[in-house]
Amino acid sequence: MQTSNEPIITVRGLACAYGETPVLTGVSFDVAHGEVFVVIGRSGCGKSTLLKHMIGLIKPVDGSITLAGRDIVLAEGEERLEILKGIGVMYQGGALFGSMTVAQNVGLPLEEYTSLPEEAIEAVSRVKLAFVGLERFGDVMPSELSGGMVKRAAIARAMALDPAILFLDEPSAGLDPVTSAELDRVIRSLAETLGITFVIVSHELPSILSIADRVILLDDKARGIVAEGDPRDMHANSTDPRVRRFFDREARVPSAPMPTEAAPNTQEARP
Amino acid sequence: MKHAVSASIPSPARQALSLEEAAPGGLVLRLLGDLNAATVAGIWAPAMAAARRPGLSSLAVEIADAAYIDGSGLALLVSMQSEARRQGAQVSLTGLPERYAPLLALAEKSVSDAAPQEADGPRHAAFGERELRQLFAETRLLVSFIGECSLVVYTSLRHPKTVRWADVLRSALAVGVESLPILLLIGFLMGLIMSFQSVITLERFGGEIYVPNMLGLVMFREMGPLVTAILLAARSGSAFAAEIGTMRVNEELDALTTMGISPVRFLVGPRILSSLAVVPLMTLFFNFASLIGGALVMVSIGFPLVTFTSRVFANVHHAELFGSFFKIMIFSLLVAGVSCLRGLRTGGGASAVGRSTTAAVVSGLILITVADGLFAVLFYYFKI
Question: Which residues of B touch A99 (CB under 8 A)?
């Protein structure tokens, strides 16, 4: 798919904190049009915090975040609303509205921001649900869905307005391998056919290796990015201990010996 | 490109949609340009009307100059095709950019397998039968809950060590101490308003001297326990239902059960015990505040304070005090019990917690009122 040369997301010098405690400092990266960009790292490194800053839920201590040419940190009022209409977010727990059916959840952004008739909104909702394999569950309440189905419905809702950028917070967490693989195919298909840019927070290595065009690895000690690039290349070739610790831990199988804490170039105990 | 425009299509849609009669009963529907939410909104109605045309034998959809097709466009295509097929028409689609073919295939699932999921159990029970079954189930649950609560209270009294006293104290703090400001304010205002209104009426007959007597009797016998119980239901009953309801939604109650801990003993017991412990004092504080309000009115119309204090308890005897004490204990048991029960019965989702909270307050108020009526009759017959 032909994409623009300018990045669709630009983050420069981002600094985030919880109260007085710094979480991330000096984070800078770009995301290209139509790219599947994955933020990886161990728990507590600031992945979800970074995501929340990028979608405008939290104001950073310092730095700028530009989505499709507009600065979400500084934007207010109508301008901010326009930015938000151009993105979709899938939260870690789904965050579906419990008082509406699944189809009504998906149709809510369409009701608010389009002039499509009711019949069209219902049809579009069902199409979005079909994209995630939930075409038969439109009339069901969210409380009646399993955890994995809630996430899929949440992705359908995030796609309701066909946004240019979709942010997904741990989409594969809680899904069985078959459903996870199906979801990966949907993500790739949407990226390739509709040119949607994906920013995904994940630590599911099979998914990451399957769908990510590029990843950044965050580290809590460094409070920033310690590696950036093709995840397959990182997995195969990186010698950075922080990268190895992430990829080797995620790839560990039950019969394999536990990796040692020593860096790869240190020697075993001398005789 | 040749356009054969149907006269029924409104002007703005003419730019994006055109219809041409084909073979007898057939239609060629041309969609020009991108298909997104904005363009589809204008052509949805005429496009669907075309697909639903009675006697349609074939529908050929031709897409042209569509660089971008979003979910709305895909929904339009599959909906038109589905409606046409429903009438037995032959359907064809040309001009769709190849990259949208996988998405169209996915979108077609939204109309082919769109039967809603059936809930468990039969849906065709008669109207009255369903309500009766529900009422029977609710009554059974209520009886079972009353039994379980009674057992918890009895066990607590016999084996105080089994009680989570820290939780009881924490609950007592929230139910009693933190409600004092509102209790005193409402008590003061009620005493003031009742005395004031009574003075206005009775001074026509020179009977304002009896206002302190009336205030003491009414407050200690009736209004004190009743209004305290209403405040308990509104403030603490709703909190009990919301707390326990949220725990139900977060599966914390399931966690207790799988640990072998009874949610009734762990959650309901401390709340009932704390309510029973603090409501007599709450009632006294309420009554006291109302007497201050009444005293203010009497002093303001020229009566000395000593007149008020000597007359206010003239008609309040042990029977009134113990009767009101007994009433408020029963009221608090009903309010705390039904609130906790509503919390335990919460369904799924945030809206269910809201419903439980509302039901807790409403049920509490109804039970208080019914019980108060029964007490009135009972006290009359026992000449209390």
Answer: 349-351
